[in-house]
Structures are given as C-alpha cells and as structure tokens.
Design goal:
The protein is of the alpha/beta class. It contains 5 helices and 5 strands, in the order βαβαβαβαβα. It has a single domain, classed as 3-Layer(aba) Sandwich (Oxidized Rhodanese, domain 1), CATH 3.40.250. It has a 5-stranded parallel beta sheet with strand order 1-5-4-2-3. Strand 4, helix 4 and strand 5 form a beta-alpha-beta unit. The relative contact order is 0.28.
C-alpha cells in the first residue's frame, strides 16, 4: 500500500509561516538533533513516539512534518494521513531549510 504523501518545499513552508498561516510543524527527529537546531514554530515529537502522541495533534490544523533529510518525516506523514490528519512532508528536511533556526 503506497500512501500518496503530499510534500511541501522549505520555501513554501517559509512563505506560509511568514503569512501567519495556522500550522502544526512537527519535528520527528531525536532530541539531540532537535537541540542542534530546529524551526522556531516546531514541536518535537520523535518518530518512535508518534503513535502514542497522536492525540496531541489537531485534525483541523494542517501539519507539516520535518526531519533531517525528509525520509523519517515522509514516513510520519504517511502514518498520520491514515488517521485522517491533513499532513505534508517538508521535502529535503532541515538540510534544505534556509529559514530561521532556534537552538
């Protein structure tokens, strides 16, 4: 079963942040990666904890999943989509992110 995973570019995400769009940016990396730098508006939910933390996500608010390179967040996006969440994967991950980073 191949999930149809929607993707968003880092530039598109930056535009949506700048516009003030209501978004949930979920970073699925590990805590040590998060501490090295993350998108300021993001929430850390490591991929392994996603199944038990699913109820923390709002089904009414679009979600953008982020990781280092886009692979883990792709899996996270496919996973939450099964439960009816509107989610997109940020293509290229933090390696492609040129916006603001918080440490």
């Amino acid at each position: 079963m191949d999930a149809e995973v929607k993707e968003i570019t880092p530039e598109e995400l930056q535009e949506r942040i700048n516009r003030g769009d209501k978004l949930q940016i979920i970073d699925v990396r590990e805590p040590h990666e998060w501490e090295e730098g993350h998108i300021p508006q993001a929430t850390l939910i490591p991929l392994a904890t996603l199944p038990v933390r699913l109820e923390e996500l709002d089904k009414e608010t679009p979600i953008v999943m982020v990781c280092r390179s886009g692979a883990r967040s792709w899996n996270a996006t496919a996973y939450v989509q099964q439960f009816g969440y509107q989610a997109e994967n940020m293509a290229g991950g933090m390696l492609a992110w040129n916006g603001e980073v918080e440490k």
